[in-house]
Write a structure and sequence with these properties.
five-stranded mixed sheet; alpha+beta; 120 residues
């Protein structure tokens, strides 16, 4: 039977249309060397402070348009639901992450392509 996804709950909590914003999905336990790329990123399985610290460390600070905001989505759809907006440097201080914790990152961008000026 089809069920409600944490993605649906996250988009509702964030008041975003995932298609309109170009939402990307990822697994916080299988992160690349650097977190970058156009569009916001929703990471599942952010179940511990260590995982949250890893996420914060892997945001490519050279590639942020401004300060990266991390939104921690905790226990979405449950009575104790919490949605907390933190700066990326505060991410690992989130209290009580568990298997129902996700992170939404805003402000990421891709590498800047050098401008090539041709003469003639």
């Amino acid at each position: 039977m089809p069920g409600l996804s944490f993605i649906d709950l996250a988009c509702a909590a964030l008041s975003i249309d995932p298609i309109a914003v170009g939402l990307r999905l990822g697994d916080a336990l299988e992160l690349p060397d650097r977190l970058r790329g156009h569009g916001p990123l929703l990471l599942a399985q952010a179940h511990s402070r260590d995982v949250l610290a890893d996420v914060a460390l892997l945001v490519d600070s050279d590639l942020v348009g401004s300060d990266v905001t991390a939104v921690v989505l905790h226990h979405l759809g449950l009575p104790d639901e919490r949605v907390e907006r933190l700066s990326i440097v505060e991410l690992a201080s989130f209290r009580d992450p568990d298997h129902l914790t996700s992170v939404y990152l805003e402000g990421l961008r891709g590498p800047v392509t050098p401008l090539t000026i041709s003469s003639g």
